[in-house]
């Protein structure tokens, strides 16, 4: 089956002569520049009469282009095709084998090129948590260099919106006077680079600019390069082009993309009609998901504290404050499985509201890339917050059995800023009881005695834990 995209990939490789043959075949004007012929041919593919008869004509013309390319390739490479025939039956038989092999090789060459043309489709792009895709307005399409001799390429595309598409945009748009028009349903333009990464993330070509209906599209502000001499790059993000669109059916919209040709790099674009999803909607989705069970968290705490080696810390601390803000976490969440290494949580609501405009997310605790589908509330942390912790408590010490004690205020006052570390980067690196062999440190802290533990969940209000004391030992070197 030939999809319209397949057909366009093939037509894109047509020379002027094939374009003219094709336009004559469908009864259209075949006079004009190559660009105009191409636009006309694409309109046929996008049109209502794109039928099997037209498809087989496209295939036929495509195959003749392929055959031509193969022939040219063989001539230009100067490699004659020669059969390695068994030497039996004399020179005549050898000629026969040679001819047969040549035909076979040509067939294979055509087939390979043909397959490449059809299969070399742009990749699917990463789904965006804050947008629900309603329909594809322009399928993923590779940017094609019209003139490989120049650095900056200009690619033009016609985008026609269906009446239904326009209705979906206009019936919900906010056009109160004096307010910037807001489009809850919008046309989203996205770019990706062809790589092994599947699905593909957003990626912009260099020297990149977009006009929609003659007006410049607002692109993300370029970020200065880290290295000197490098040009600033625009952070790749989906681009809302709705405000430039002609929201009338059958009126063509002109998309103009200028981009820098880069050796070996291939970029594609696509336009989708999307609905913006509000952070609260996403929060409700997260709330309805099954939680990260407390057993799983306790198991992880045990693993960190009772590791079978010397690097196991004696104590593990958990901050009740969200690493994104300075207030206490109210909806503790983590990404699972990406964040299975750490038990520290962040606040779901704060995280979602802060990441609304980002197309890729990282965990604020361990900096790993995370997906929306991974976000889940943490049962252990939730129950801890629901237990009798005082309002001023912002840190707890975890024990290997899953119990915890609040870090007393006295200790917090005593400890210097550099002597205690919080669990971060997925490593539990807080060591209160140091190893004697550690020679490069002359001040060591010992936490003694082990404070009484609070059971989880608390059956009755937990007793006030015994105050731990810090003993500081100075070692003379
Ligand atoms: Zn072919
Ligand atoms: Zn993480």
UniProtKB/TrEMBL annotation:
Protein name: Protein inhibitor of activated STAT
Molecular function terms from GO: SUMO ligase activity; transcription coregulator activity; zinc ion binding
Biological processes annotated in GO: protein sumoylation; regulation of transcription by RNA polymerase II
SUPFAM superfamilies: SAP domain
Pathway: Protein modification; protein sumoylation
Top-rank taxon: Eukaryota
Gene3D superfamilies (alphabetical): PINIT domain, SAP domain, Zinc/RING finger domain, C3HC4 (zinc finger)
InterPro entries linked to this entry: PINIT (IPR023321), PINIT_sf (IPR038654), SAP_dom (IPR003034), SAP_dom_sf (IPR036361), Znf_MIZ (IPR004181), Znf_RING/FYVE/PHD (IPR013083)
Segments forming domain PINIT: 108-277
Region: Disordered, residue numbers: 404-477
Annotated source species: Notodromas monacha
Occurrences of domain SAP (ranges): 11-45
Family: Belongs to the PIAS family.
Compartment(s): Nucleus
Chief location of this protein within or outside the cell: nucleus
Keywords assigned: Metal-binding, Nucleus, Transferase, Ubl conjugation pathway, Zinc, Zinc-finger
GO cellular component, one term: nucleus
Record-annotated SP-RING-type domain positions: 307-390
């Amino acid at each position: 089956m030939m999809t319209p995209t397949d057909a366009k990939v093939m037509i894109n490789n047509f020379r002027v002569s094939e374009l003219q043959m094709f336009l004559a075949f469908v009864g259209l004007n075949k006079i004009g520049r190559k660009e105009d012929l191409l636009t006309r041919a694409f309109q046929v593919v996008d049109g209502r009469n794109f039928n099997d008869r037209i498809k087989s004509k496209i295939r036929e013309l495509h195959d003749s282009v392929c055959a031509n390319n193969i022939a040219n390739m063989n001539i230009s490479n100067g490699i004659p095709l020669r059969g390695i025939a068994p030497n039996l039956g004399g020179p005549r038989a050898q000629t026969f084998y040679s001819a047969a092999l040549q035909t076979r090789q040509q067939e294979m060459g055509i087939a390979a090129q043909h397959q490449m043309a059809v299969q070399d489709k742009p990749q699917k792009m990463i789904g965006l948590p804050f947008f629900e895709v309603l329909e594809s307005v322009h399928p993923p399409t590779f940017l094609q260099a019209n003139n490989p001799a120049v650095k900056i390429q200009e690619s033009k595309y016609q985008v026609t919106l269906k009446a239904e598409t326009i209705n979906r945009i206009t019936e919900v748009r906010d056009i109160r006077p004096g307010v910037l028009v807001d489009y809850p349903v919008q046309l989203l333009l996205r770019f990706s680079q062809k790589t092994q990464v599947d699905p593909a993330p957003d990626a912009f070509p260099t020297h990149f600019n977009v006009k929609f209906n003659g007006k410049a599209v607002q692109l993300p502000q370029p970020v200065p390069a880290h290295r000197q001499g490098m040009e600033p790059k625009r952070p790749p993000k989906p681009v809302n082009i709705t405000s430039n669109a002609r929201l009338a059916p059958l009126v063509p919209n002109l998309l103009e993309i200028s981009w820098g040709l880069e050796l070996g790099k291939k970029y594609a674009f696509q336009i989708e009609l999307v609905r913006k999803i509000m952070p609260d909607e996403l929060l409700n989705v997260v709330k309805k998901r099954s939680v990260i069970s407390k057993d799983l968290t306790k198991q992880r705490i045990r693993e960190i504290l009772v590791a079978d080696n010397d690097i196991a810390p004696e104590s593990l601390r958990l901050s009740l404050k969200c690493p994104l803000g300075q207030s206490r976490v109210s909806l503790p969440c983590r990404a699972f499985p990406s964040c299975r290494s750490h038990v520290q949580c962040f606040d779901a609501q704060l995280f979602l509201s802060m990441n609304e405009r980002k197309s890729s997310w990282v965990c604020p605790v361990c900096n790993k890339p995370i997906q929306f589908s991974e976000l889940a509330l943490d049962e252990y942390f939730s129950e801890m917050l629901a237990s009798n912790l005082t309002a001023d408590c912002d840190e707890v010490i975890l024990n290997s059995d899953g119990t915890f004690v609040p870090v007393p205020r006295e200790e917090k006052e005593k400890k210097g800023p550099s002597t205690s570390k919080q669990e971060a980067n997925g490593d539990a690196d807080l060591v209160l009881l140091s190893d004697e062999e550690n020679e490069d440190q002359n001040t060591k802290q010992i936490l003694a005695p082990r404070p009484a533990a609070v059971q989880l969940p608390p059956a009755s209000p937990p007793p006030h834990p015994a105050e731990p004391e810090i003993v500081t030992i100075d070692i003379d070197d």
